[in-house]
Write a structure and sequence with these properties.
- By secondary structure, the protein is of the alpha/beta class.
- Helix content is 34%, strand content 23%.
- The protein contains 24 helices and 31 strands.
- The strands form five sheets. A nine-stranded mixed beta sheet has the order 30-29-28-27-23-26-25-24-31. Strands 3, 5, 6, 7, 8, 15 and 16 form a seven-stranded mixed beta sheet that branches. Strands 11-10-9-12-13-14 form a six-stranded parallel beta sheet, sandwiched between helices.
- Helix 6 packs across helix 7 and helix 18 runs parallel beside helix 19.
């Protein structure tokens, strides 16, 4: 299928061939009929992409701050690779469309195949021939509403949420500053609510359009006409609300709002304009400044948007989806008319030149639609519903039982190892694929994703031979030697199980499993297939600096005490790591790294786990006990200073101390002192060496880099942390070696 994409680094716009997205549970696959270009938001993004790197930085100081923090935590080279990887990737455009339901996922019962729906979301209602849309981001189109009009649903919801924030009442007077697409819709919604509206925009064509659509008067914000109209309609008191629907760097809108708003009036920011509030003017009138967050309650909440958890109507009357349905109803009943806003309808095949004409100013438009050609139904396979995480009253270390299938044969020395990737997110593209793409004897065969664009990006950047959304086809391909599972945590165990049953060697990023049942399912696949060719991405044991320090420390004779401080830091709001209901806790996802490192240094698997947490935050203390009496204490904290190193480790035994400082410097104190040179470039946490060992095992058919029993023990110990937190007592790992 085709999709409009942009490279933010180069500014390139393209109509790209990408794989068809899969139809997951709790959502629908929609074939686009019309999608709407946001001439404000999207053109701003397109313009930013054409700027120099300095211009991009000036336009996004929030992102610059994140880069500075990343440099402090991860070093310049790693941060540079991460930033350039994100910039030099295709990103999607679009967030408002109407289309026909082509496939219905499990759990959906309010629409059926063939229904017309309006869709929202900058990750789900893209300028693409097919989109997967979760259930809270679509709404059925009422009978009689044309598809091209229903495509306005998302921007209509944005305007509606702004009007709701203004709390307008019958007979009041409002000022709308900025008469672009959103401003025109705000004018109509206010007029339909019995509010008299004055519009302000420097474009006389837009002013005339707003007056035709219900505004009492409009004019240039710098002229006296707007002030005269407000004075006449309000007897000189000023408007009850001001809606800021303008963009740009001028502070004129907020200054005009203060001048023309009545005492204790409301100012609602809908667009993205400069907000240097003149303190005296806003203070003396005690103006109420409010922000309108996109389409309404639910926006930016993953539980609402992705997991489909609706808000109770008694507590949240107007959610994202209810706003969308309400706007469609108003349009169907003729209370809002979007037809006069349509300046141009372009065929989807002409998407790139249409954007260019808009950017160059050749095409003057309020709203532009893409019209999609009719196509035959694609052959889609529905994703299996995810199994819910099981709550287990106790944690055991399952015994590894291998079946009787023949082991993987060694490959010919001259034949390349053919690898497939399931998932192509940030970690895969920044930490794994760069080490594999240029490695001799490796061929990147196929990349599999549920979203088409991420697959296309990975194929372009790393040279995969093919990109698809069909996992079964890859697992059934006998030419694929190994499968990398680099998806979200909740899918690791099931994908690993399937790949093992298909006879593939598997590399799965941590965690291997989020519950005992998931871990048991993986081991059942090993027993059924006889295929134990599995590696979990515990890369720190492969770090060259830590290996050198371990060698310098030497063998020990007595118990050891190990302390591992992990300064994890806080996550950004909206990070999928925060979705504990589906993706597990942060420690469940990341803690295996640190348990594996401790067990490797102590050359044993833990026999008990004690965990305690500070109230009110995610800080954890995890104490592991080992068969010879050694202990490892892992302090996993999120409340530390962002400038402090992320990982520091001390190992003490037999009168010696090993110290690791964030994979930048290591030292060993004993009879002689050894201190490494500070790494001049980047923190090497072992990914390259780990991947080399994995590829070597695949090629030769030799032992996997880490014994399966060790991987299972580390996973079981990680799961025991949750059990220990719930019970408040040490958890014995029954069956531990």
């Amino acid at each position: 299928m085709k999709q409009v994409v942009q490279n933010y680094k180069s500014g390139e716009l393209a109509l790209l061939d990408v794989p068809v997205p899969g139809c997951k549970a709790d959502g629908v696959l929609v074939r686009s009929a019309y999608s709407l270009i946001s001439t404000g938001t999207e053109l701003m993004k397109v313009s930013e992409a054409g700027m120099s790197m300095l211009g991009k930085a000036r336009s996004r100081p929030d992102q610059v701050a994140k880069v500075v923090q990343s440099v402090a935590a991860n070093g310049v080279p790693a941060t540079y690779r991460k930033v350039m990887g994100k910039l030099d990737s295709y990103t999607p455009l679009g967030y408002s469309l109407c289309g026909v339901v082509e496939q219905v996922g499990a759990g959906i019962d309010d629409v059926k195949v063939g229904d017309l729906v309006a869709c929202a979301g900058n990750e789900h209602a893209l300028h693409a021939e097919l989109n997967w849309v979760p259930k809270n981001l679509y709404a059925p189109v009422p009978d009689g509403l044309a598809p091209r009009h229903a495509a306005f649903g998302t921007v209509g919801s944005i305007a509606m949420q702004g009007v709701r924030q203004g709390e307008s009442r019958l007979g009041e007077v409002a000022l709308v500053i900025g008469l672009g697409l959103i401003g025109q819709l705000v004018v109509q919604l206010l007029a339909a609510s019995g509010v008299r509206v004055v519009g302000a925009d420097p474009d006389p064509v837009r002013c005339e359009l707003a007056e035709r659509l219900g505004a009492a008067a409009c004019g240039d914000p710098g002229s006296a006409a707007v002030e005269h109209a407000v004075a006449e309609l309000t007897d000189g008191h000023g408007v009850d609300q001001v809606y800021l629907a303008a963009g740009g760097g001028s502070n004129q809108p907020v200054e005009l709002a203060a001048r023309l708003c009545r005492d204790r009036g409301r100012v609602v920011d809908i667009g993205k304009c400069r907000l240097d509030l003149p303190w005296n003017a806003y203070y003396e009138k005690e103006l109420d400044v409010r922000f309108s967050r996109s389409y309404g309650p639910g926006r930016y909440d993953p539980a609402y948007e992705l997991e489909g958890r609706d808000y109770p109507i008694g507590y949240v009357r107007w959610t994202e989806r209810r706003n969308l349905a309400c706007f469609l109803d108003l349009a169907a009943r003729g209370r809002v008319d979007v037809e006069p806003l349509i300046s141009h309808i372009a065929d989807f095949d002409d998407a790139v030149p249409t954007y260019q004409r808009l950017k160059d100013g050749e095409l003057k438009a309020v709203a532009v639609l893409f019209r999609y050609p009719e196509q035959q139904e694609p052959d889609q396979k529905e994703d299996a519903a995810r199994a819910p995480e099981a709550e287990a009253p106790a944690v055991t270390v399952p015994a590894v039982r291998r079946g009787t299938a023949a082991p993987s044969p060694a490959r010919a020395a001259t034949a390349p190892v053919r690898l497939a990737f399931v998932g192509a997110g940030n970690y895969a593209t920044s930490m794994l694929l760069p080490h594999l793409a240029q490695r001799d004897g490796v061929e990147l065969s196929t990349v599999v994703t549920t979203t088409a664009l991420s697959a296309a990006n990975a194929q372009r950047k790393f040279g995969f031979a093919a990109a698809t959304t069909d996992l079964d086809a890859v697992l059934g391909d006998p030419s694929v030697d190994a499968v990398f599972v680099v998806t979200r945590h909740s899918s690791h165990a099931e994908l690993t199980r399937k790949a093992l049953l298909a006879g593939k060697t598997v590399f799965v990023e941590k965690p291997l499993a989020l519950s005992e049942d998931e871990l048991a399912g993986v081991l059942a696949a090993v027993e059924e297939s006889g295929n134990d060719r599995l590696q979990v991405g515990f890369n720190r044991r492969f770090a060259p600096l830590l290996n050198e320090a371990r060698k310098r420390f030497g063998a020990r004779t007595g118990p050891a005490s190990l302390r591992y401080l992990v300064n994890a830091g806080r996550l950004d709001h909206g990070s999928w790591y925060l979705r504990q209901g589906t993706e597990g806790s942060r420690f469940a996802g990341e803690g295996g790294h640190f348990i594996d490192t401790a067990s490797w240094l102590l050359d044993a698997d833990p026999v008990s786990v004690y965990a305690t947490a500070a109230p009110g935050n995610e800080d954890l203390q995890v104490v592991l006990r080992y068969p010879d009496g050694s202990t490892a204490t892992i302090s996993y904290v999120t409340t530390g200073a962002p400038g402090f190193p992320k990982e520091t480790l001390d190992l003490v035994a037999d009168g010696k101390v090993l110290r690791l400082d964030d994979f930048v410097r290591a030292s060993v104190y004993g009879r002689k002192r050894w201190v490494s040179s500070r790494l001049p470039k980047a923190r090497d946490k072992g990914q390259s060496a780990e991947l080399a060992a994995f590829v070597r095992a695949v090629r030769t058919g030799g032992p996997m880099p880490v014994p399966l029993e060790s991987l299972v023990a580390t996973t079981a110990a990680t799961l025991a942390v949750r059990t220990g937190l719930a019970g408040g007592a040490p958890v014995t790992l029954t069956g531990a070696r």
